[in-house]
Amino acid sequence: MTAVLVRRRTKARPWLYLLPAAAVLVPMFGYPVYMLGLLSVFDYRQAQVSGGQPSTFVGFGNYATLLGDARFWEVLAQTVGFAAALVAATLAVGAALAVLMTRVSPVPRTTLSLAALGAWAAPAMTGSTVWMFLFDADLGLVNQVLGLDGFNWFYDRWVTFGVVGATIVWHSFPLVMVTLYAGIQAIPASVLEAAALDGASAWGSFWKIIVPMLRPLITIVVIQSVIWDFKVFTQIYVMTNGGGVAGQNTVLNVYAYQTAFGSSEYGLGSAIAVVMTLILLAITLLYIRALYRSGEKL
Amino acid sequence: MKFLYLTAAGTALLALAACAPSTAPAGGGADEKTGTLRVWLFDEPNRAPKEKVVNEAIKEFTAAHADVTVEVTYIPTTPARHEKFKGAFNDPASSPDVAEYGNTDLAEYAAAGGFADLTADLQGQDMTPDLLKSAAVDGKQYGLPWFIGVRALYYRTDVFDELGLKPPASIGELTETARTIRKKKPDLYGMAVGGENTFGALPFVWDAGGDITSLDSPESRKGVKAYTDLLTEEICPPQACVSLTGGKTVELFASGKAAMGIGGNFNRSAMDAGAAAGKYAVVPLPGSAEGSIAPAFAGGNNLGVMKNARHRTLAVDFVKLLGGKAYQMKMYEAMGNLPTLTSAREEVAAKDPFLKPFLDTVPKGTKFVPIDPAWVKIDNGKVIPTMLQKIATGQATVEEATTEAAAAVKAAFGRS
After folding, report:
1. Complex ipTM, two decimals?
2. Domain B151-297+372-414 classified CATH 3.40.50.80?
């Protein structure tokens, strides 16, 4: 009798602990996602919202429209490529600066962390606008310093992605840097010292000691970066004025926004958002699983 | 366990509520004869003169109607206006009685069922049928055209005099003149042309006999080519010009960096505030045949009554007052808005020679965007700018880009 009670209590306990989190997540996250999914199976446009026409259930009709649209695939491929490049760049910059911070004296270290905090604290909107001014064709500081009068940084597709990508990395590297710096600080100095005594180079000890020991932290920052960079919106929307010349810089989130709110195709826009959510979930799950498979503890 | 029950109960509740996404309640309208009449008008870069005229109208209106006050809200003209209007359609409590709206937005608003049918209330207006139609959908009048804007060709008299050039009388001459200017004065753009200037490009398409609904026809292609031929290194380099909107090309001309530019009668104050002030003149935008005029776009704003209005009769009276001849004339004097009433327009034309090239354009036939919710989709989806930009940047030929744009237009109509 008591054994059963105890077992039941132990079984219920994890759920009990999850309750506070669930109380926040269900209304704040579950309900919007549910509404999103619901909208995505309806033909739901402005006329339906304001009651001019009845809304009709179209099943997977919006998804069929979407998957049959060549533009969607083009934007999806572009988004994946852009996000992958951003994750790699953010991690490289963040890790390099984190290592640098462990090796310099306090004054440059403080300067660096203050500068990074500034970038971190800058709202995406402000940062994008400031970078846009810096790269302005006629009045921008960059063109004045480089003597490139009238060069339009937002004309060529890849140059534009470069400038916008730099802005996004500038916004997101501080988190990676601070997290990894804290991780490196937590590695016992004796381990690194022993490696150095055994003749390991700085490069070698970074890859063979620091990276493996920081793997759980790196996992977290990679997942965070993937999620952030895949759903990038503000920088693209602001800096390229909603997708650049002939829409060549459109990413999935901007595309979803323009479909849902620009064209008032709320149903179709929701379908894009659902597809995005599924892709992100899949990437995250696959990544975590791959880590478990390789026998590393998280 | 309790949690599981809760979840199950919650899921069941949600499933019950899940029949369909919510829709606005129907029929918020009424016809009260007293109270506060709420009016939405567009905010302008320089609002003071508009506000002054509107306040005069309100004074006259409240003097004639006992126990009525008028409350005006100035709303932005940015794309956020769509959200404001959608909100008013969806929620009767936040709906005004009278609203000013751009005539290109009409079809979307009419399809959403947001504005009241005023056909019976607005009989016998002193207006050309073309103009009245710009406020009608399927034969129903959804508002009173309040003012229009017409575009024409601004050019720099000092540059033309110095180089011994004459204002162009055909599109061929326009292109040639623009090339000559840039060749002789490399600091100047031959003409300020924008890859996102939809209403600058459309007259070229209409003049060639094409239209938005048939962008891949040989006629439309001819017009698109004529416009994109201006977006080249020798006239307005794509690097600088491909992302320009109509407003930006006006700024470019006003700042003295371009020898020609397409601008509206409503851009006069901007021109006079820039380096080009006092050194420009205006001619109608020429068509392809020597001495012809390209059809202009009949852009403008209407005054409408919301379906959710709580003071329908009062609202119609206010529209008739503010949209009547006396206040159209006052609005012209204050803001330079061209009156829609024929008699009022003739009066201001006689007074102000600046308007002549714009008004000469109107009788040659004005054109309009498709009166269909699809237009908002085509416009917001940047179908026409994308087409122009692809051609100007060499990403596509005229044939490829127009075929693609025609497909996008067709898709927009198909889903509306």
Report:
1. 0.74
2. no
| SS3 state of residue A227 | helix
Compare all CA atoms of chain B with the CA of A53 and give the residue at the minimum distance.
Answer: B112
Point out the residue among A52, A137, A262 whose CB comes nearest to the CB of B113.
A52
pLDDT at B140 over 60: yes
Q: Is A219 exposed, middle or buried (0-12, 13-18, 19+ CB in 10 A)?
A: middle
Residues 192-251 of A with CB under 8 A from B: 241-243, 245-248
List the domain boundaries for chain B.
Answer: 35-149+298-363, 151-297+372-414
Q: What is the pLDDT of residues B229-278, one digit of tens each?
A: 999 999 999 988 998 888 889 989 999 999 999 998 888 878 888 898 88
Domain span at residue A253? 73-264
Give the C-alpha separation, B313 to B320, whole Å: 11
The reply to whether residue A44 touches residue B381, judged by beta carbons under 8 angstroms, is no
From chain B, pick out residues whose CB is under 8 angstroms from the CB of A47. 111-113, 373
Q: Which two tokens mark B275?
A: 């380096």
The size of the A-B interface in CB pairs under 8 A is 107
Question: pLDDT tier at A44 (50, 70, 90 boundaries)?
Answer: confident
Task: Supply the CATH classification number for the domain B35-149+298-363.
Answer: 3.40.190.10
Domain count, chain A: 1
Q: Which of B239, B377, B385 sits opposite A152 (nearest CB)?
A: B239
